[in-house]
Write a structure and sequence with these properties.
Blueprint (H helix, E strand, L loop, with lengths): L1 H22 L6 H43 L4 H44 L3 H33 L9 H4 L1 H36 L12 H42 L3 H23 L16 H31 L5 E3 L5 H27 L4 H9 L4 H14 L2 H19 L1 E3 L12 H15 L2 H23 L4 H48 L12 H42 L16 H15 L1 H18 L1 H37 L4 E2 L5 E2 L7 E2 L5 H45 L2
Antiparallel strand pairs: 1-2, 3-4, 3-5
Helix pairs in contact: 1-4, 1-8, 2-3, 2-6, 2-7, 2-15, 2-18, 2-21, 3-4, 3-6, 3-7, 3-15, 4-7, 4-8, 4-15, 6-7, 6-17, 6-18, 6-19, 6-21, 7-8, 7-14, 7-15, 7-16, 7-18, 7-21, 8-9, 8-14, 9-10, 9-16, 10-13, 10-14, 10-16, 11-12, 11-20, 12-20, 12-21, 13-14, 13-16, 14-16, ...
Amino acid sequence: MLVPIGVGLLAVLFAAYLANYVLRKDTGTPAMQKVANAIFSGAMAFLNRQYRTIAMLSIVAAVIVAAVLALLGQGSQADKLSLAWHTALAFLIGAFCSGISGYIGMYVAVKSNSRTASAATRSLGEALMVSLRGGAVSGFLVVALSLLGVSLVFTAYGGLTNPALVPSLIVGFGFGASFVALFAQLGGGIYTKAADVGADLVGKVEANIPEDDPRNPAVIADLVGDNVGDCAGRGADLFESTAAENIGAMILGVVLYITTKNIGWILFPLVVRAFGLIASAIGLLYVRPSVVIEPDKAAGKDPGEIAMNQLSIGYLITCALSIIGVFVGSYLLLNGPGITGANGIAPWIWFGLAGTVGILLSVAFVYITQYYTAGTWRPVREIAAATLTGPATTIITGIAVGFECVALPVLAICVALGLSFFLGSQVSFHIPVQINPGVVNQGGIFGTAVATMGMLMSCAYVLAMDTFGPITDNAGGITEMSGEAEEVRDITDALDGVGNTTKALTKGYGIGSAALAAFLLFSAYLDVLFTYKHNPAVYRVDLADISVFIAALIGITLIFFFSALAIRAVGAAAKRMIEEVRRQFRENPKIMAERVEDRVDPDYARCVDISTRGALRAMVLPGLVAVLTPIAVGVILGPQAEAGMLMVGTMGGIVLALFLNNGGGAWDNAKKYIEAGYLRVNAQGEMVDRLDTSGTILGKKSEPHKAGVVGDTVGDPFKDTAGPSLHVLIKLLSTITLVLAPLYVFLHP
């Protein structure tokens, strides 16, 4: 345990070093500081109110879980009470760590935006460093707190003296993290998109003013939303990913520990996560000003491409070091008596290869997501071409691209799952029948767990790239609102474009890891059922059984109903925002006065308040539906039916999240493609190559641009509210079933 705890503490210190680096930077001109302070106060006010609501819900949930397990658990009364208080306490610790990691990460991210804007007045390299390191504070804190939380709770609960029992006691930690993540992602997603849709539709389409124009009453709410949705929300999402998947893999390792008496099978996920933190830190430190080419020396190269290349190299360094780390971890921990590898190859090599498959899947997801969401490829250009014929064709083409983009990621997930299972199955164990009846291949299942651990090794670096997005977006808004020179805005626009790509990549990474983890957590649930029932039949989930079929149908329906509630919440809050922006323009014409000296500031605080109240009110219903539905299915239909719901609901969630994330991202970047001046048409009005100088540019304020903005606003709740919330829902289904398995078995013996 020294490795995960020691590396976790070092990662917290590394995050503190990065925070100190960022906070020592110049905060910019008084005009920059004024905008940044407004964003900071709005973001922290929302987060304080949101986390008060979540804290109350978490305490109620912990009490209910403890009561249910104490009254209806398995074994003697002492066993029931032990399981109840251990699970409830772990739930509260997981919830607290999830909240605190999102809170601190967002605090530093919001403090980084004016410093990035100020750095952009000096150089691209410095602006890239400040924004990336500001984002990395969140990335490293999230992964370090997840690692420390699971490691310390495991140790405190007696994991080193009774390793076989403790993983099932700490599963509450994952449930607590998932519970907080769901409400944080929902609330943040509703807030950010209500503000964004209101700002875009009234500001850009109706009032014909640029993005982030200080005359737009919703602009501060929009900039606040970038932080509460993408920083705090995504931080909580990936916190619960790493926590839930660590615990699921530890539960799977219990059977192999009992067989080999080697605790390494249980500790492996924690040690590999520690190696991943080290790899991410080295990858991050590679990106420094000396390797960034400034735009004036780039011989016409796009500054965004220069910055993206540096981030990509840092990511590939992280992945290469992660491959070494997974082999080292396998060599040190995955061994014991009675284990043999096929073809005379050592077992640790087979598991190292399985981990490599997971790492390669993360790289594949990066490139697949880039293909569907970056403006240099066919899908985005296809949507941009559709804007020439209006909003309707823009939306139709975007939906078609969204449906198409499901295929490649799903095939990649299938290949990774199949290959990692095959590699793991090449290792044979002599497992007693009473521990495992031999219905499933334990080596194959653990191989998929190792692949999941491999994919999540780069989590800290990926989350740094994700939080980099809202920091650069805010920096662009600050330079626009404070009236900086055009060349400064060019640098922040370039970094903002990169940030949009990295945010899309993180969503792809999030759903890819959720898909791999889904099989891991599903297998862990079946293992838990076997420990209670000692019946090999629990490993067979039969869709021909009417209760299983009904539960599976409810599972897939939950995914769509939950998404409908999330998207509807954005629509309702956006409607109120649009009405407020129109009211301010109508009742206070001086906001839009021609002469700058005659203008007055709009009432930004009113729009911030509308988004805040709308998000907090709307996040509760979809959250409760997500939590209560799997509980109702398990209680009424039983543990096998619950397995059917878990299996089919997860599959539906993966497919729908891919559609929502990539479809929304493609619409967003089609709009940005037009805003960058890349949409050119010939004399016949047909789209030509962006480098064809004979074509006429149709840029901002053109009719295609307005159609692109409409498409983007349709995609906004897809990619930033419903899609990311589904990542959390998929894993929440698994953690709820793991925690409440004793209840389902008690009611359906």
